[in-house]
Automatic annotation (TrEMBL):
SMART domains: GGDEF. It comes from the Bacteria. GO terms for cellular component: plasma membrane. Keywords: Membrane, Transmembrane, Transmembrane helix. It catalyses: 2 GTP = 3',3'-c-di-GMP + 2 diphosphate. SUPFAM superfamilies: Nucleotide cyclase (SSF55073). Its EC number is 2.7.7.65. InterPro entries: Diguanylate_Cyclase, GGDEF_dom, Nucleotide_cyclase, Rev_trsase/Diguanyl_cyclase. This is diguanylate cyclase. The chain crosses the membrane at residues 12-30, 42-61, 67-88, 95-114, 120-139, 151-170, 190-209. It comes from Comamonas flocculans.
């Protein structure tokens, strides 16, 4: 294989050290709501730089330091990467898998100090195992919604694994007198260049993972009701506006259901506020269980829920409302050994929307219908027509 003259091994090592240290510094500034893992990753980068510093001093210091210690620290680097990924997913650290490769690497490098081929082969093997462990830990939990960071780390580490493997094969295929780390051979240059790129890409991947999770948490907090986990009022209003605009353009039917738990104050007063919270969660789940994928249920406020039902006419909306009312009545909430019965009243408004209509008219009408359901004794469904100001009131159907 021809030697790449401009790729000087020493320059490569300085590049790897400088690049790694800058990434470690950058990692120290990663600020997200949950920082698990970034500390381990920064330490991994620091130890990686330390390894290459020792590699660079090959020939000037004892081989026990520049070979055995350096490779042992490198095994520690990969152990720290595994710890970072495990911590990111909030799992217990797999201590055996984390620690075992470190003494094993020290032992094998000490044993084969004078035998470059065997040393490279065993080191490559140990590192490949560590890479497989990291990738496994990365993908073991349920798939993340935004897997781009994990993909980047996987690609970077797999490339590193493949290069180590190829390097091992290449060394084996060479005549006995091949250069070690001190040489300027193409294989060494490629190894160092790849280490540099791998470190940068994998670290970028880890930063992306933490950033994507932070964004997902922010999105969850901004759009979901903390107590029940369903949509909050903000998301409901946004979705209602968007859906209603669409229905107006298409002159399509659209329905909203305003749901209120009957005598909820009595549940709070007699069973306690925490039991009241459990009933809210329970009713939210029941309402959610009957919806189609295009529908949405959210908490409008207190013990009130709003359901948005695209492409639903008045008979479909009223039928669903009756089903939900019966479901809640027949399914008491289990809480700390108690069975807490609950009932709901529902106001329905459904209409074929036309350009110029307002989304809030639907909610106002459903609210009026709900008021009537409460007045008429609760645990019931009432429906109200959409009132278009300045237009005659349509006949009730
Ligand atoms: N546990 C709990 N209670 C809440 C929450 N939000 C509002 N509430 C309570 O919900 C109750 C609503 O009471 P009311 O408006 O009188 O309504 P109600 O008792 O359901 O009576 P009707 O609607 O007329 O059947 C109040 O006691 C509020 O304190 C919450 O997040 N958790």
């Amino acid at each position: 294989m021809a030697s790449l003259a401009p790729l000087d091994t020493r320059t490569m090592m300085v590049m790897v050290i400088a690049g790694t240290l800058s990434m470690a510094l950058a990692m120290a500034f990663v600020r997200t709501p949950r920082r698990e893992g970034t500390g381990f990753w920064a330490w991994a980068l620091l130890t990686h730089a330390g390894t290459y510093l020792l590699f660079m001093l090959r020939g000037q210091i004892s081989d026990w330091l520049s070979i055995v210690l350096a490779n042992t620290i490198l095994a520690g680097t990969f152990a720290l990467l595994l710890a970072a990924v495990t911590a990111f997913h909030g799992r217990a650290q797999p201590w055996m898998w984390l620690l075992a490769p470190i003494p094993a690497t020290a032992l094998l490098n000490g044993l084969f100090l004078q035998d470059l081929r065997l040393r490279l082969l065993t080191s490559s093997f140990m590192l490949s195992i560590q890479i497989v462990l990291i990738v496994w830990a990365l993908w073991r939990p349920t798939r993340p919604n935004q897997p781009r960071g994990a993909i980047l780390i996987t690609l970077a580490l797999s490339t590193q694994g493949a290069i180590l493997l190829l390097r091992g094969i290449w060394y084996l295929s060479q005549p006995t007198a091949v250069q070690g780390l001190g040489g300027n051979g193409t294989a060494q240059s490629i190894t160092f260049l790849s280490a540099f790129i791998v470190v940068l890409l994998a670290s970028l991947g880890f930063v992306l993972m933490t950033r994507d999770r932070a964004e997902a948490i922010n999105h969850e907090l901004a759009n979901n009701d903390l107590l029940t986990g369903i949509a909050n009022r903000r998301l409901l209003q946004q979705t209602l506006q968007r859906d209603a605009q669409h229905a107006m353009r298409q002159r399509e039917a659209y329905a909203v259901l305003m749901v209120d738990i009957d005598h909820f104050k009595a549940i709070n007063d007699s069973r306690g506020h925490l039991a009241g919270d459990a009933v809210l969660r329970h009713v939210a789940q029941l309402l959610h269980s009957r919806l189609r994928s295009q529908d949405m249920v959210g908490r409008w406020g207190g013990e009130e829920f709003l359901l948005l039902l695209p492409a639903t006419d008045v008979s479909g909306a009223s039928r669903l409302a009756q089903e939900l009312r019966t479901l809640v009545q027949d399914t008491p909430c289990r809480y700390e050994g108690m069975l807490i019965p609950a009932q709901i009243s529902i106001g329905v408004c459904a209409a074929t929307l036309q350009p110029g209509d307002r989304a809030r008219w639907l909610v106002d009408a459903a609210d009026k219908a709900l008021y009537r359901a409460k007045e008429r004794g609760r645990n019931s469904v009432e429906q109200a027509p959409l009132l278009r100001p300045g237009k005659p009131v349509p006949a009730q159907g």
